[in-house]
Amino acid sequence: xxxxxxxxxxxxxxxxxxxxxxxxxxAELVRGELRMSPPPxxxxxxxxxxxxxxxxxxxxxxxxxxxFGDSFGYELVRLPRTVRVPDVxxxxxxxxxxxxxxxxxxxxxxxxxxxxxxxxxxxxDLEEKLDDYARAGTPLIWVVDPVRRTVMVIPADQPARWxxxxxxxxxxxxxxxxxxPLSAIFEGIxxx
Length: 192
What we know:
six-stranded mixed beta sheet, 22% helix, 28% strand
């Protein structure tokens, strides 16, 4: 049975969240609170798709794990009633269920979480997401800005650093051998 969307003040369990009938857009659960965001637009989608395609080919060819798009949610079990849906993510093969993924959500933090900035996202929303990934144990986070053509790299064990369009980003120890020029992430996005 699919339930209608709850009133804004109602706190949900993960199970209730998964059974909601929701309008188009991205839905996440943050400590029981339903968070909705509108569809983000073309530059966001282009950057996420470019990165997902390159990452997916790399990890599949090397059997490193699996890359996922924004239709894949994670129950961050270290945080109560929290489901995050990165724009792009990666999970190492040794952390995925041997029999394959089943119904529901993966109950773990991704090894890589990528958030692509969108016009509707506030600085506090982004900070909350980054904090959730870090607290849940995600070892590598990338924040992609398709307007400024930058990527902020946030490894769990090092200071954050900024990369610009002429730079190259790599997966470090989380995704061995993965390297992509930032220009490839922003390919097809107008400079206007």
